[in-house]
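Running this now, will post back.
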Amino acid sequence: MNRKFREIDTTLIGLNQSTDAHFKWLVTVLRYVASRDVELMEITHEDAHQHCEFGQWLNAQLLEERGDRHYLLDISTHHRKVHYACQQIITAIDARDVSSHSYDAFEKALLGFTEALSLYKVHLLQLRTSYDALTGLPLRRILDESFDAMNAGQEASGLYLMLLDIDHFKKVNDNYGHLTGDAVLRSLALHLEDNVRRSESVYRYGGEEFIILLRAKSDREATTAAERLRRSTAEVSTVSGEHTVRVTFTTGLSRVHRGEPLREVLERADMALYRGKQSGRNCTMLIGKNLDCMKVSG
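Update: finished.
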């Protein structure tokens, strides 16, 4: 399953568990106010927000390089306010000088904290729907949103788009059933992800079609990478129930030119893919900007 997809799920689980822990913390606060039988760091210390279970989880997230860091920093600010408002109430109780203002401030801090959590959770859930539930790969929406930035970020390494289609996939479904077909799609997605570099991306484009954005300095380097993936895929067996299935794919490969819109690159790659199918499938077809095609293998 896609690394990012797993990270989203892991973050959601951690967020839910640590949020539950903070509700339990509120109960601990009530017990502490009633008994004062032990000093609790997550309540009494100046940096109490660092010691509660939620604070420990949040600090661990902030140590990572994350694209959603601004959400976490906002949550951290509101979390700190909750602990500070709690300490103010306890201090006022000790001084027998509790006013409605103290409770209002605590309520306001809690509501702000809850809102920040809700915004982050909505963000994570929306992001999760941008990934394919079957394969865990990002869908076309993610590619649409990130393509321009990736294209603009080209430096020494060029960018190539590889549009691939599983050969005769309908026969897999017809002969072995859709569950086996799903297993083949999952197996291929996993294989592709395991065999591209971390700087390269794999997407599920639709049905049995996938897109890979390859980093390569030349046509030769790009076709070598595409061929390596094509040949290694042909050697992978997918076991589903009593069936063992091997598949091949045909791919259209095109260089991405700086500033070029995704639509134009996809049109070229799709044209090359079509010609690859016409020429016998199980091959790599490289297409240039002037639409000349070269069959690399097959």
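The beta strands are 158-166, 201-206, 209-216, 238-240, 243-245, 249-256, 284-287, 293-295. More later if anyone needs it.
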